[in-house]
Amino acid sequence: MDILTRIQDKARKLNKKVVLPESEDERILRAARETIRKKMAFVVLLGNRGRIEKKANDISVDLSGIEIIDPDTDPYRQEYLENLYELRKNKGMDREKAYQWLQNPMYYACMMLRQGVVDGIVAGAVFPSPDVIRPALQIIKTAQGIKLASSCFLMLVPECSFREGRNFLFADCGFNPQPNAEELAHIAVTTARMAELLLGVEAKVAMLSFSTKGSASHETVDKVVEATRMAKSLQPDLIIDGELQADAALVPQVADLKAPGSDVAGKANVLIFPDLNSGNISYKITERLAGATAIGPILQGLAKPVNDLSRGCKSEDVIGQIAVTALQTEF
């Protein structure tokens, strides 16, 4: 069974409810229909009922079995407003500002999630990533014990002749530009948990650098070494090693030469990059040159699941993120 089928099968058994706040987008509507057809999750379309129904009719999408919540007629709207005011009043929020925030579908969806009306959010087909992430951080916030939110990509590599495993998690490729050592350690721990959830195997975490085991000296190498030590302190049973170059992390023959005896070198399935530049470049190169499928960015470290989409996404990408979001409720 391929990994995507396994993720969707697990999502199907959970019966979770996911809200889609960009409900007039054709890709979102088609993804909602297919999600319901596959019985993978319950779907809520958030927005103006009349416009949603007109768009669905124009593109011949059947909305039966899909819940529509229109904020203008939602009986919970006033409750969300009062709760948002209470949540943010110490930061200068008043009821007028709370009302203005709730005019934004992402803020409305986040209040639905915070109040437990839905189990997760998928957005980003229309909204830029900051407009997805900001409301999530302000309303959902990070999970207990997690210092910061981050992102990862599930990378499905079609050909990987030098090793058995072909599925990887790359982090952080879309969120934190220059994490310090402590932040990098939290990214490693969070991504390892995500790998075990999505891949169904034990995470083996490589902390990447341009150096392997002291082969080069630089302050950026020192950061990776310190982050590795801190990650082990945060989760003593975590299988993690660093600093490792990418070839030492991935290729068994290179690992034998550069990092003999390592529990991770040559066997890594989680790659933690030292900064956003290296992570973002690497996932895009892997996607384009190796023909890999990149699923994400998957947001992690939040108290409840909110996931981002690329504005260039296809409906299939939305379906994949809905399934991932359902699984994240298991944390």
Descriptive report:
With 331 residues, the protein is α/β, with parallel strands linked by helices. The chain folds into two domains: 3-141 and 302-328, Rossmann fold (3-Layer(aba) Sandwich), CATH 3.40.50.10950; 150-293, 3-Layer(aba) Sandwich (Rossmann fold). Helices cover 45% and strands 16% of the residues. It is built from 13 helices and eleven strands. It has helices spanning 3-14, 26-37, 49-58, 77-88, 95-101, 105-114, 129-140, 181-199, 219-234, 246-250, 252-258, 276-289, 315-328, and strands at 17-20, 42-46, 67-69, 120-123, 150-156, 167-171, 204-208, 239-244, 270-272, 293-300, 306-308. The strands form two sheets. The chain has a six-stranded mixed beta sheet, with helices on both faces. It has a five-stranded parallel beta sheet with strand order 3-2-1-4-11, with helices on both faces. The chain is globular, with a radius of gyration of 21 Å.
Number of extended strands: 11
In terms of DSSP E residues, the strand content is 15-25%
Quick check: average pLDDT? 94
Named CATH architecture of the largest domain? 3-Layer(aba) Sandwich
Radius of gyration: 21 Å
Assembly level: single chain
Helix share of residues? 40-55%
**Secondary-structure class:** alpha/beta
Put the structure in a nutshell.
By secondary structure, this protein is α/β, with parallel strands linked by helices.
Write the layout of secondary structure elements.
Blueprint: H1 3-14, E1 17-20, H2 26-37, E2 42-46, H3 49-58, E3 67-69, H4 77-88, H5 95-101, H6 105-114, E4 120-123, H7 129-140, E5 150-156, E6 167-171, H8 181-199, E7 204-208, H9 219-234, E8 239-244, H10 246-250, H11 252-258, E9 270-272, H12 276-289, E10 293-300, E11 306-308, H13 315-328
